[in-house]
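Q: How would the structure tokens look for this protein?
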Amino acid sequence: MKTLIQNGHVLDPESKTEGIYDILVEGKKIVKVAEHIADAADKVIDAKGCFVMPGFIDLHVHLRDPGLEYKETLKTGGDAAARGGVTTICAMPNTKPVIDTEEKVRQVHERAKKESKVHVIQLGAITVGQAGEELADIVGMAKAGCHAISEDGKSVMNASLYRKAMKIAKEQGIAIFAHCEDITMVEGGVMHADKKAETLGLKGITNAVEDVIVARDILLAKETGVRLHLCHCSTEDSVKLVRAAKKEGLPVTAEVCPHHFTMTTGDITEDHGNFKMNPPLRGKSDVEALKAGLKEDIMDVIATDHAPHSEEEKNKSMKEAMFGIVGLETMASLTYTELVDTGVLTPMQMAEKTSYYPAKILGLQDKGAVSEGKIADLVIFDPNREYIIDKNTFFSKGKNTPFDGWKVKGDVRYTLVDGTIVYENTSY
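A: Here is the predicted structure in token form.
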């Protein structure tokens, strides 16, 4: 099978190549990138006016499968990812049962090859059952290709146990993906601690809940030498701490989610579960710091923290609702609208933070680029198309988003995985 993509504005973050090129895909790989390709092809796509970027790699997704399939499955999550231009997913291990053994990692990988349209990398838990008491089978999970371990959804509060996990991860050549939250300081909070929380009569979560663990984890990474990736950073001081760690040359990377660089507590219109996420929406100074951190390449990655829940779990007060929002199908549009169209990021930086840097963090040598010999995981993205986000059209089972009804600019037109078109936007 040969696919020829013509006239696209190619963004290759690996070589920093940017311009109008044709791309020839044969089988699973890119075989030619040139200004004009005359080869015959089984499928020709005219990408005029669109960016052609490496497929997005989302380091932070909750697929809920196994055990919570009423929220999401490997299939529905894969469909949602494909629609959002995401070609590789890192699935968090806080499923039921928790993914904490070599066998469980392998089972998800085997099922995903059959059930998901996109690549799924199953991450392993740090402790057995994510109970924080005993280390999981880190060596076995590394052998099964987990690429990283994470206790996402909570922090490992026992620093000694956590340090032991870091040492093993370092020996196995895998990363730690850190959920930074001091659970002893949450104290029942459900949203950011500010005047809006007081107005709504809700208990707040201070920035220090995140910052204390960010600082701790960076210091432990400094001691152990493990590659540390900080998930869903939301505070001004998190950016400061990451900047200091990088200045010192520590192996630390960090991600920001679209909801954290797009919304503040000022955008919370009512006490509703769709505004409840962890970490919570923060203040204006935090959002500006996150944007600056992304612009200055202090914050490396844009990831979704896609966290689907049922209508029953979210259609209630933040006091009772589950934490989390969906993001796979809105990440690209929100990133372009909020960061690229406003001049905070260049289109090339968008490609770097959604694909190239995530590929480097995972050690995926054949992804994150648009060049000959690379795997043909590609997204064709139309930066000019405007549309209204409608949660009822989501492929994900989760409809829990505060962005329903938002007007955005930029949309995925095609998604290719291993050279095969897995999503085509029928709005054209």
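The chain has twelve helices and 18 strands.

The mean pLDDT is 98.

Upvote if useful.
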